[in-house]
Specification:
Blueprint: H1 13-22, H2 40-46, H3 50-53, E1 55-58, E2 61-64, H4 72-84, H5 87-95, H6 125-144, E3 150-154, H7 161-169, E4 179-183, H8 188-195, E5 203-208, H9 215-230, H10 236-239, E6 240-244, H11 247-252, E7 257-260, H12 277-283, H13 285-304, H14 311-325, E8 330-336, H15 343-355, E9 373-376, H16 387-392, E10 399-404, H17 414-431, E11 448-453, H18 458-479, H19 490-505, H20 513-523
Parallel strand pairs: 3-4, 3-5, 5-6, 6-7, 8-9, 8-10, 10-11
Antiparallel strand pairs: 1-2, 2-11
Helix pairs in contact: 1-4, 4-14, 6-12, 7-12, 12-13, 13-18, 14-18, 15-18, 19-20
Bound molecules: 6-O-phosphono-beta-D-fructofuranose.
6-O-phosphono-beta-D-fructofuranose is lined by residues 156-159, 209-211, 214, 217, 267-268, 353, 486, 489.
Length: 524
């Protein structure tokens, strides 16, 4: 099947079958309310093999999907949907460098960034490895340089969320000497709070921007350069580094040390490129290579495993099931490990920027929902904040429990208690609570997923993130949308420039009355 002309999901027979099938899980208007309903507790009671059959493992990531609202017929129909939609043809095209980013006419080859040297015949492979070697050598040089005590990373969106998340996740590998700071927002409070206590001659600034044109990052970079010069800094070549596809723009700003990457690396998929430099500085070159190796192992699984055992594919199908057939508008991410505290934010951009689309790749409006809202917070904090809604609220919200078997600390008792909480919440959601008191009763059969890593190593983190990337892209491919563009964020940027001028001049001509009022108020 040609990946460009695959049947659209809602025009397949599997889609119609899933619609009929969904009535047993969430009966809609006009459907037979008396038909037997799927009961998750009963599914476990009647089927001792359920947990094992709905568990998957790939590249060191274990996923137990048995607490999902699916039965065997659901799984079969979802796999039929994947086949009807030509998912395999799309996957093969994506992984062979076809221009799957159709609106921008380019490939999405972030997987190439993690292929070991010599493993890929792709024409860009040699350049990828030359940049990687240079960037890792530089990271090691900085780690060995006692005169550098602080690293400030300036970037936003994909040029911030991945490195920020991975630096925290791999903190156990970071030398205590190097303090890492991340500033993304144009809000001067954020940059000011970081700059205030920095030793000017011992600080390294990384300006990370694929385009080197993003207003927030450019404003922060200029302010950092001004701050540096005002305090007697006179070695921009040594203390500023640019990570970008637009080397000329970095040079125009006076930043001559740069590490590049190609435009086929989407911002939200760029952790593996030069954008990962702070991770290599914090955790070391070996750890960064291990991160890539973990992701590459997941790439291999994704490329080769048959659809029914393919972890990214199975999870994407589950996402489609919840979103399009059971009406779930959101999914909650609950990492039970402090190191993964920024994972929900990274995932938010990954899934919502990739799949928050309303037309298919041919420009036709879709007749079904696409990306759900992705949100979450580390357990057990979430338990004391929003789990009430998950347990007794009116929305059906699948929860993703992400746990790590081994702790990286030796405080007695904490890790067992943490893991017990994660298991307990999932079990409570399954069991619900009966009784005659309506206020205390909780519906049973609320779904969750359990994702487990043995330890939060660079390798395991790489595999986990690649799993999410491929799962997201598979959802997009099943919906027939382009997961690799983000035109929805462009208009706001243009209007922001116009408003900035109006805030300076007070001119409100031609703007709506509400915006005019706000401009007047803000000008005081
Ligand atoms: O928020 C929109 C966006 O274009 C993201 O896709 C991207 O990750 C971010 O801005 C930053 O872009 P750049 O790396 O070019 O500064």
């Amino acid at each position: 099947m040609d990946w460009r002309h695959r049947p659209r999901c809602d025009r397949t027979s599997a889609w119609a079958e899933l619609q009929r099938h969904a009535a047993r899980f969430a009966p809609g208007h006009g459907q037979d309310e008396s038909a037997p309903r799927f009961d998750l507790r009963a599914a476990f009671a009647s089927d001792p093999g359920r947990a094992a059959r709905l568990s998957f493992e790939a590249a060191g990531v274990f996923v137990d999907a048995s607490k999902s609202l699916v039965d065997d017929a659901t799984s079969d129909a979802l796999l039929a949907l994947a086949r009807d939609c030509g998912l395999q043809a799309w996957r093969d095209a994506f992984l062979s460098g076809e221009p799957v980013n159709t609106t921008e006419g380019r490939a999405a080859k972030h997987w190439l960034l993690r292929a070991p040297a010599g493993a890929s015949a792709d024409p860009d492979a040699a350049e990828v490895h030359a940049t990687l070697d240079a960037m890792l050598a530089y990271a090691e040089q900085v780690r060995a340089d006692a005169s550098i005590t602080d690293v400030v990373h300036l970037g936003i969106g994909g040029s911030d969320l991945g490195p920020r998340m991975a630096c925290v996740a791999l903190q156990a590998f970071a030398p205590p000497r190097l303090r890492m700071h991340f500033v993304s927002n144009v809000d001067g409070h954020a940059l000011d709070a970081v700059l205030r206590d920095l030793p000017v001659h011992n600080t390294l600034f990384i300006v990370a921007s694929k385009s080197f044109g993003t207003a927030e990052t450019m404003a922060n970079a200029r302010s950092a350069l001004d701050w540096y010069a005002a305090r007697g800094g006179n070695d921009v070549a040594r203390q500023f580094v640019g990570l970008t596809t637009n080397i000329a723009a970095a040079r125009a700003l006076g930043i001559t040390r740069t590490f590049g990457f190609r435009d086929w690396v989407g911002g939200r998929f760029s952790l593996w490129s030069a954008i990962g430099l702070p991770v290599a500085m914090a955790a070391g070159a070996d750890a960064f290579r291990a991160l890539l190796a973990g992701a590459h192992a997941m790439d291999g699984h994704f490329a080769q495993a048959p659809l029914q055992n393919n972890l990214p594919v199975r999870l994407a199908l589950l996402d489609i099931w919840y979103r399009n057939f059971l009406g779930c508008a959101s999914r909650s991410i609950a990492p039970y490990h402090a190191g993964l505290q920024h994972l929900p934010a990274w995932l938010q951009q990954l899934e919502m920027e990739s799949n928050g689309k309303r037309v298919d790749m041919h420009g036709e409006p879709v007749a079904y929902d696409t990306a759900p809202v992705i949100w979450g917070a580390p357990g057990t904090d979430g338990q004391h904040a929003f789990f009430q809604m998950l347990r007794q609220g009116t929305d059906l919200i699948p929860v993703e429990f992400i746990a790590v078997r081994e702790a990286a600390h030796d405080l007695p008792g904490h890790h067992a208690q943490l893991l017990a909480n994660g298991l307990a919440q999932a079990r409570a959601m399954l069991e619900g609570q009966g009784g005659s008191d309506a206020h205390r009763a909780m519906p049973p059969g609320r779904p969750s997923l359990f994702v487990l890593l043995d330890a939060l190593t660079p390798q395991a983190l790489g595999a986990l993130l690649a799993l999410y990337e491929h799962r997201t892209a598979c959802c997009g491919a099943l919906w027939g949308i382009n997961s690799f563009d983000q035109f929805g964020v462009e208009q706001g940027k243009v209007i922001a420039q116009d408003i900035a001028q109006r805030l300076a001049s007070g001119d409100t001509g031609g703007v709506d009355a509400s915006t005019a009022q706000r401009i007047a108020r803000l000008r005081g």
